[in-house]
Amino acid sequence: MDAIRAILSRVSTKNFASSQITKEDLNTVLNCGMSAPVGRKRYDTLHLTVIQDKKILDAITDASAMRTPEQPDAPLYNAPTLILVSSKFERTDHIEFANAACVIENMAIAASALGLGSVYLWGFVQKIKDMPAIVDMFDLPQGFVPVSALALGYAVHKPEPSDRPRHSIGINYK
Ligand SMILES: Cc1cc2nc3c(=O)[nH]c(=O)nc-3n(C[C@H](O)[C@H](O)[C@H](O)COP(=O)(O)O)c2cc1C
Predict the structure, then answer these.
(1) CA 50: distance to chain centroid?
(2) Nearest CA owner, ligand 1 atom 12
(3) Which domains are present in the chain?
(4) I want to staple 36 with a disulfide (CB 3.0 to 4.6 A). Which of 44, 60, 106, 107 is the partner?
């Protein structure tokens, strides 16, 4: 799929099938994450953790306590792969969040191009980031804090590709 079509077709998946993605697709997604722009080239302030261990995925789900009758599979929607983005916080202008967002969106677009489902996840990270029992399972390098994540897998109901935006944002021209 070309880049424009992959971007226009990207949509959040909240119903993942149990089958795992291939190593090749995972590597492509990770390579695209590493190709994101990062402020002042500080790639060393970012870290990615690929989590496919069901025990850890289940521990995150339980600890976040985000399941509801409306969303019984929250927060990970049964995704078989989670890519956690962690940052080393050195500044007060929130650039770490901007950098993480660029990495995640690059990976989401790559997933779209590969026909994979993905969803950008913020909520569960806010719940678990201060829980040592969960964060210790990630084996993060010293000084890194979880910021957000991308869940990856195959969508149970694969969305139709799109050739137009699914949402709109106000624009003005001067
Ligand atoms: C910064 C950010 C945080 C998000 N956090 C969550 C989340 O915690 N849980 C979730 O289900 N979706 C989350 N999303 C996905 C959005 O809800 C979704 O992108 C939005 O509703 C637009 O839908 P679409 O992605 O299907 O086009 C997040 C998206 C962004 C960009």
Answers:
(1) 10
(2) 121
(3) 3-153 (3.40.109.10)
(4) 106
Q: Of 127, 110, 108, which is closest to residue 119 (Cα–Cα)? A: 108
Whole-angstrom distance, CA of residue 121 vs CA of residue 4: 23
Asked, as a colleague might, if the bond just before 75 is cis with ω within 30 of 0, I would say yes
Predicted TM-score (pTM) of the model is: 0.98
Nearest partner of 30 among 132, 107, 122, judged by Cα: 107
pLDDT per residue over 36-53, tens digit each? 999 999 999 999 999 999
Mutate to test the pocket of ligand 1, among 97, 102, 105, 122 (most ligand atoms within 8 A of CB): 122
Distance, CA of 150 to CA of 119 (rounded, Å): 6
